[in-house]
Amino acid sequence: MKNQLKTLFLLGVLSALLISIGAAISPGYLYGFTALALLMNLGAYFFSDKIVLRMHGAQEVSVEEAPALHRMVDELARRAQIPKPRVCVMPEAQPNAFATGRNPQHGVVAVTEGIMQLLTERELRGVLAHEIAHIKNRDILVSSIAAVIAASVGYIANALAFSSFFGGSQDDEESEGSGAGGLLMMFVAPMLATLIQLGISRAREYMADDTGAALSGDPEALASALEKLACGAVALPSTTPQPATASLFIVNPLAGGSRIVSLFSTHPPMDERIRRLRASMSRYQRFAS
Q1: Backbone angles phi, psi at 25, to 5 degrees
Q2: How many other β-carbons are positioned within 10 Å of the β-carbon of residue 246?
Q3: Contact partners, residue 19, CB within 8 Å, separation at least 6
Q4: Which has more pLDDT, 70 or 187?
Q5: Which helix H or strand E contains 133, and what residues bound it?
Q6: Residues 222/126, Cβ–Cβ less than 8 Å
Q7: What average pLDDT does the structure give for the chain?
Q8: Of 131, 176, 227, 272, which residue is the catalytic one?
Q9: Confidence at residue 4, expressed as pLDDT on a 0 to 100 scale
Q10: Is 41 exposed, middle or buried (0-12, 13-18, 19+ CB in 10 A)?
Q11: Integer CA distances (angstroms), 5 to 34, 38, 41, 254, in order
Q12: Which site in 170, 216, 223, 261 is 20 to 30 Å from 12, CA atoms measured?
């Protein structure tokens, strides 16, 4: 119940932020942006998985195309007692993975080409267990909705800031205020949206690590994978960086970016994640195959 209330609160804040963009530019935008926020929450509920997959160029692969990947996903889904998620691959050299889908019946696991080349099968199984844990724990929906709304906040803030400068009102005073509001929202709104995502994503990563370790019975495999992925994210920056969806990935795809970007990381400290996993090894030995 506590997590549900927190989810509703944070999504409400994101929606309020979207509405505030319209109010800051001009009071006339307020009702339109209120309606837009409602529509976006509904749209994100039903289509967030498709939007996120398209943003990253993820394509579904068949059993014939990726038999080992499907075998591991099928086994782990049965252990988690959820329907087998769809399996997608992203044409991305950076080693990474994410899960999406509003519920277990619509779950999707997506991995990059880079992660399949970097990790051993045992390590990849640990990563897939982490992603299936997100689906089992039903925390994908809130992250996907937050990612879609946060991305829209950034896009709309920039678009309105631009239009406020070049398509302003006939009234000089109103135009000046509109431009100032647009400038403020251009910088503040995306930053606030990112900070809200921080609150949504950090705890769920620890939980998915823990649940994934239980599902696989092999915490060391995930710990070893995280060590490699952390180095890989720095060595191979993402070719299609999307700050608004960074929280969905197992490691921050922006880790190779600037120090300022790292201050707004949507993930817990990697050293702490690895320490917790290795400390839990004795607890989960009984689940091992």
Answers
A1: -75, -45
A2: 27
A3: 30, 33, 34, 37
A4: 70
A5: helix 121-136
A6: yes
A7: 78
A8: 131
A9: 47
A10: middle
A11: 21, 18, 16, 29
A12: 261
